[in-house]
Specification:
Length: 324
C-alpha cells in the first residue's frame, strides 16, 4: 500500500510540475512575464523540471532583452540539458542581444559562439523552426564582413519551406527587399495573405514595404486591418505605424497626434517588438511640428529625451526647433 501511495505521489508531482511549466509557457506567450517568472522560480528548484525551467527563464530574459540574465540562465540550461535544441537557441538569442549592445570588436569576438549555438540547435532538432529563422535573419541583416549573405539565406529558406512555408515565404519577402525587389516582396506577401489572411506579421510586413515605397495611403489601409486584432501587440504596432505613415506622408497630422497619444497611453513600459514610449513622443513632436504647434512639439521632444537620454533623433529635433 505504501509503495502504491508513493508511486501516486510521484505521478501527481510530475503532472503538477508539467502543468506549472505549461502555465508558464502560456503566460510568457501572453506577455504576463512577472507571473511566469513566479512559477519558474518555483519549478527550477525541482530537479526533474530544472532543465526546462532554465530554458524558459532564458527565454523570458530574452523577451525583456536582458542579455546578462539570459546568458546566466542560458549557461545553466546548457549544462542541465545539453541535448536541448531550445536551450542552444535561447542562449544564441542572448548572445545576439549582447552583440547588439557591445562594441564592434567585442561583437565580433562573440560572433563565433553565436553561430555555433544556432548550428547546434538545428543539428539537435532539424524540425525546430526558431533557430532556422534566427539564422536566416542573421544572414539577411548582418554585414558581409560578419557573415551576412543573401545567397546563403535563400538556401536556408528553401530548407525551411517543407517545415513552415508561411515563415519561409515571409523570409523570402525579406530577401527580395534586401535584393532591391520590393514589388517581388509584396507579391510574395499578398500570395501568402490570400491563403492565410490572419497572418498579422505578413500584413505588417506588407504595410512596411508600402511605407518604404512612399505609397502611404496603401500602407495605411494594410495597417488599419490590424487595428481590430485582439492581440494587443499587433493592434498597438498598427496604431504606431499608421501615425508614422501620416507623419512621413505629411497628411492629416492631427490624426497622427490622436493615434500617438492613444499608443503612449496603452503601450507597456517594456515590450519587445513595439516602439518604446520615447520613440512615440519623438514622433508626437514631429506631428506637432508639422502642425506648427512649436510649444507642444518642444514638450514632446523633451519627454522623449527624459525617457531615453540616448534618443538622438529627439535631441536633434529639439535643437532644430525655432526659438519662441
Amino acid at each position: 500500500m505504501k509503495a502504491i501511495l508513493a508511486l501516486a505521489a510521484v505521478v501527481f508531482a510530475a503532472v503538477a510540475a508539467a502543468t506549472d511549466l505549461d502555465q508558464a509557457r502560456t503566460l510568457i506567450e501572453a506577455n504576463r512575464l512577472d507571473e511566469a517568472r513566479a512559477i519558474l522560480d518555483r519549478t527550477v528548484k525541482d530537479p526533474a523540471e530544472r532543465g526546462e525551467s532554465l530554458v524558459l527563464l532564458t527565454r523570458l530574459a530574452n523577451i525583456k532583452e536582458d542579455y546578462e540574465t539570459g546568458l546566466e540562465f542560458g549557461k545553466q540550461a546548457l549544462k542541465a540539458v545539453p541535448a536541448s535544441s531550445d536551450a542552444h537557441y535561447e542562449y544564441a538569442v542572448a548572445l545576439r542581444t549582447k552583440m547588439s549592445r557591445a562594441s564592434k570588436l567585442k561583437a565580433m569576438m562573440l560572433l563565433g559562439d553565436y553561430k555555433d549555438e544556432l548550428a547546434a540547435a538545428i543539428r539537435l532538432d532539424a524540425k525546430n523552426v526558431k533557430p532556422r529563422l534566427e539564422q536566416i535573419g542573421f544572414l539577411l541583416s548582418a554585414p558581409g564582413i560578419a557573415g551576412g549573405d543573401v545567397t546563403k539565406a535563400r538556401a536556408r529558406i528553401e530548407e525551411l519551406k517543407p517545415l513552415d512555408w508561411r515563415s519561409a515565404t515571409k523570409m523570402e519577402a525579406q530577401a527580395l527587399r534586401k535584393e532591391g525587389n520590393p514589388e517581388g516582396a509584396m507579391t510574395a506577401l499578398r500570395g501568402l495573405l490570400a491563403k492565410t489572411a490572419d497572418d498579422y506579421e505578413a500584413r505588417m510586413s506588407l504595410g512596411m514595404t508600402l511605407q518604404e515605397l512612399k505609397r502611404y495611403k496603401e500602407a495605411e489601409e494594410e495597417f488599419a486591418r490590424l487595428l481590430p486584432v485582439t492581440a494587443d501587440q499587433w493592434s498597438l504596432a498598427a496604431t504606431y505605424q499608421i501615425a508614422r505613415t501620416h507623419i512621413l506622408g505629411r497628411y492629416e497630422q492631427s490624426k497622427a497626434v490622436e493615434l500617438l497619444l492613444d499608443y503612449i497611453a496603452r503601450v507597456p513600459d517594456k515590450s519587445a517588438g513595439l516602439a518604446p514610449k520615447s520613440a512615440a513622443y519623438w514622433r508626437l513632436g514631429n506631428s506637432y511640428e508639422q502642425l506648427a504647434q512649436v510649444a507642444k512639439a518642444r514638450e514632446a521632444y523633451e519627454k522623449a529625451i527624459a525617457l531615453d537620454a540616448g534618443n538622438d533623433e529627439a535631441k536633434k529635433a529639439l535643437r532644430a526647433l525655432p526659438k519662441e
